[in-house]
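Researcher: I'm preparing a figure for a lab meeting and need a structural model of a single chain. I don't have an experimental structure, so a prediction will have to do for now. The sequence is pasted below. Please return the structure as tokens so I can convert it later.
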Amino acid sequence: MRTQALPHPILAAARGGPIVTVGEERALIPRDALYRVLVRLDGAPVEQTMQLGLARIEARPKSLIADGWRGLVALVVRESGF
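Model: Understood. Here is the structure written out token by token.
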């Protein structure tokens, strides 16, 4: 699900972060699509402070056309009574 507002002001570009926001200053709405992910660390952090960092997310490529085709085929099969 797309993030509707930044959870921490430090992430906003206006406050030194990497994410450009639009709209109200209080809401901090991301200009571009932004999705939240859960990151599991290999070990406990040395300090319990908020820090900016980078995470690399690897996934297999996925074809939107193939997904649409599978959905269409599933719909036809479901509606035809097979």
